[in-house]
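Fig. S4 source data, part A: sequence.
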Amino acid sequence: MTNNPLLVDAPAVRRARKFGADQDIEGASCLEGAGRAPSRPMAAMMAFICIAFTSIWGYVFISPDMPGLDPTIDYAWFVPTGPRFLAGWIALTLCLASAFYLVLRASPESWTRSAAIAAFIAQFVLKCVWAALFFAMRAPLPALFVMAIFFLCVVASLWLSAILDRRAGFLMAPYFSWAAFILLLTLNTAASVGNFQPN
């Protein structure tokens, strides 16, 4: 097999020879493909599933008319409501999904890609935890702690994404602004009302 002129110079064969495995290699193309980034459809599906799950989970607790959730919460004047909130949410979700897609499609050989994916996954999980604490459990103080960590993950995601692909960094910029806004909102609520007792 290694004498086949079509495979003798294949990267998979060269790697096998380097590690002392100069022998017949079946499926050299499969070995070569093991280190590739996911295909466009696969990357798009992965990004969609992660973003959709996070958004749906958050929407369970967050209505487009947020102040209507709990009349005891005196939300800050800068909190958008109604169609403005929904439109902003959709735009930010699309930007985040596009940035995550570009990161998934980046070269797997870069350590930055692995770090960026970890930062994205961390912020997805933390966002769900924050929504549950802030809206379902009415606990703005613990939510503030989670949101602070979430904000750091967003900063890391933006920085790492920009290293991998400038387009991904550009798409993360609006989400960074949103994360700063939510951090300010959580801080304002925690400072104003303290900790809510669950209903």
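Fig. S4 source data, part B ends here. Residues 19-34, 195-199 have pLDDT under 50 and may be disordered.
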